[in-house]
């Protein structure tokens, strides 16, 4: 961001960069106010680091306040092709899924006990399980938002595992992230990485899904593919 090596970053340059964090303008405004301590509209290196740290806090569900600065959080994520931490690059199938096999077996047992229809659970069936955790409603709302990856208002087996994983993290006092980390995206939901401008993307949801033998039969997939596209 400090391309001229001046040791400082102007408000306009910093704003363009910080917007790539995907946070709302309201949150970014708060971050700026805390980082720009003397209100000059310029950040030195130390103040810029404070801003980055606060972005990471916000992305991981922590309060945007100076009290959060010393809490352990992963580095902030920015959707930008020139950034060293590129989001789309990490969502490839090379990243192992964060849900462990033995945990997945437990989550699958809960999933099956809720009488899924065509391999899917409606929000009404998942809600009692989420509420049973006694977590705050806003946290549970975010868990649902993050786990319903294809936004169809239902959770399949993998999406339910993501929801359970996030609930257990929250119960262990770990913050629920604002956006789903690449490692938590189930392998069945990962899109092949495309090089922008190389060629138009052919809808590949069915072909990539059918290559995973552990997934449900193609008949069920056919019902879901229009939603995915």
UniProtKB/TrEMBL annotation:
Q: Does Calcium show up as a keyword for this record?
A: yes
Tell me yes or no: is Calcium among this UniProt entry's keywords. Answer: yes
Gene Ontology molecular function: cadherin binding; calcium ion binding
- CDD domains cross-referenced by the UniProt entry: EH (cd00052)
GO terms of biological process kind: endocytosis; endosomal transport
Q: Which organism is it from?
A: Haliaeetus albicilla (White-tailed sea-eagle)
Q: Where is the EH domain?
A: 1-74, 103-191
- UniProt keyword annotations, A-Z: Calcium, Metal-binding
**InterPro entries named among the record's database cross-references:** EF-hand-dom_pair (IPR011992), EF_Hand_1_Ca_BS (IPR018247), EF_hand_dom (IPR002048), EH_dom (IPR000261)
List the lineage, top down. Eukaryota, Metazoa, Chordata, Craniata, Vertebrata
PROSITE patterns with a match to the protein in the record: EF_HAND_1 (PS00018), EF_HAND_2 (PS50222), EH (PS50031)
The EF-hand domain, residue ranges:
23-58, 135-170
> Which Gene Ontology terms of cellular component type are present?
clathrin coat of coated pit
Its recorded name reads: EPS15 factor
